[in-house]
Design goal:
By secondary structure, the chain is of the alpha/beta class. 42% of the residues lie in helices and 15% in strands. The protein binds pyridoxal-5'-phosphate.
């Protein structure tokens, strides 16, 4: 029998609208492991990859892979259950304990993704008597999580402390205030002013929540994140982060913070209560990644040195790189078409980078985002800078 066709409204709009707006997202198929060098399906190998969140290169680390295989063999493929019915194994409890220790918090709770952790926390914690104050450029999953809760919503201008203070004053009438921000913002590579945010939170009796997806494992002297980098680990109450980026890259997310809050999430957080437990192999990957990071900060330091190499060479070549000291290095170009043709031409030269334009970033602020990893060699970085310089000259982005 023929497969059912799509319903009539889907046959034209909205897909045609998406194509017409030039915002169609296509996916390149990778035929190798994630890593600094890739083979694309149907194409040659030898592509140098600068667009994964594999900041520490742990996605294909041999010890991480071995830990996953061992967990798979010992604990099976999966639990066929949510956590509270028949889905908690000793490895889940061990990983939660390890995450809390890594972040120096009381407890932690695992989710299938950080998207789920963000979707679950606001509704579980906040009531209609409370208020949440959110940076306007927060990640989509924070925005969706906030939409799901019944608290009063305030949106402050990106990293604008005057605006946050004004909104905190307005929110004094509510029972509880929660300031929510990304620790590091993934489009600009900029870092939230957490010291100032925590000072304001103290002044106006608010809690601070940070999403550390682009910080955990590598920001701060020991890779604990933005709160360590800015010296406010004791002032940020709630940290959400992912196991799907620097911490092995498999999947999974978590909340870490006060034990009472984690207890509440286990009782009330819907993505936790109504979704399957993390598969053992995934738990094995993350657990080993954390072991490696707690043993030594050498990997994080090597990534920082490579980031510094890329940023300084690109700046010397005449490019503007947004953000500061972060492995997300947006090469600012302005024009959407320029970003798109340059990214295509970079791939022709074996360098895989992605152009971003409106509506993902504001109009007139198109860019190519480069992400540095600890497993890039100095030669990889230099080849990327050379290709940018050639392609930039060819398309008029450089004199
Ligand atoms: N928060 C931020 C800032 C992110 O960049 C992402 C991933 O893109 C997420 C949350 C979601 O993380 P996960 O992939 O674990 O669902």
């Amino acid at each position: 029998a023929a497969a059912p066709a799509a319903p009539a409204p889907l046959r034209s709009a909205p897909l045609e609208d998406i194509r017409g707006a030039g915002t169609w997202k296509s996916e390149r198929v990778i035929a190798s492991r994630q890593g600094p060098h890739l083979r694309l399906a149907g194409g040659g190998g030898g592509i140098i990859n600068f667009c994964a969140n594999n900041y520490l290169g742990l996605s294909s680390h041999p010890e991480v892979i071995r830990a996953a295989v061992e967990a798979l063999e010992k604990f099976g493929a999966g639990l066929s259950s949510v956590r509270f019915i028949c889905g908690t194994q000793s490895i889940h409890k061990d990983l939660e304990e390890k995450i809390a220790r890594f972040h120096q918090r009381e407890d932690a709770i695992l989710y299938a993704s950080c998207f789920d952790a963000n979707a679950g926390i606001f509704e579980a914690l906040l009531t209609p008597e409370d208020a949440v104050l959110s940076d306007e450029l927060n990640h989509a999953s924070i925005i969706d999580g906030i939409r799901l809760c019944k608290a009063n919503k305030y949106r402050y201008k990106h990293m604008d402390m005057q605006d946050l203070e004004a909104k905190l004053q307005e929110a004094q009438k509510h029972r509880l205030r929660l300031v929510a921000t990304d620790g590091a913002f993934s489009m600009d590579g900029d870092i939230a002013p957490l010291r100032e945010i925590c000072q304001l939170a103290q002044k106006y009796d608010a809690l601070v929540f940070i999403d550390e997806c682009h910080a955990t494992g590598f920001l701060g002297p020991n890779g604990r994140g933005t709160d360590e980098l800015l010296g406010v680990m004791d002032k940020v109450t709630i940290v959400n982060s992912t196991l799907g980026k620097a911490l092995g890259g498999a999947a999974g997310g978590y909340t870490t913070g006060p034990k009472l809050l984690i207890d509440l999430l286990r009782q009330r957080s819907r993505p936790y209560l109504f979704s399957n437990s993390l598969p053992p192999a995934v738990v094995g990957c993350a657990s080993k990644a954390l072991d490696l990071l707690m043993e030594s900060n050498a990997i994080a330091q090597s990534m920082a040195a490579k980031t510094q190499r890329f940023r300084s060479k690109m700046t010397a070549a005449g490019f503007t790189i947004s953000g500061k000291d972060h492995p997300i290095c947006p090469v600012m170009l302005g024009d959407a078409r320029l970003a798109s043709v340059m990214a295509e031409d970079m791939l022709n030269r074996g360098i895989y980078v992605i152009g971003f334009s409106y509506p993902v970033v504001p109009k007139g602020k198109a860019r190519i985002r480069v992400q540095i990893s600890a497993v890039h060699s100095d030669e990889d970085i230099d080849r990327c800078v050379e290709a940018f310089t050639e392609v930039g000259r060819k398309h008029g982005a450089l004199p």
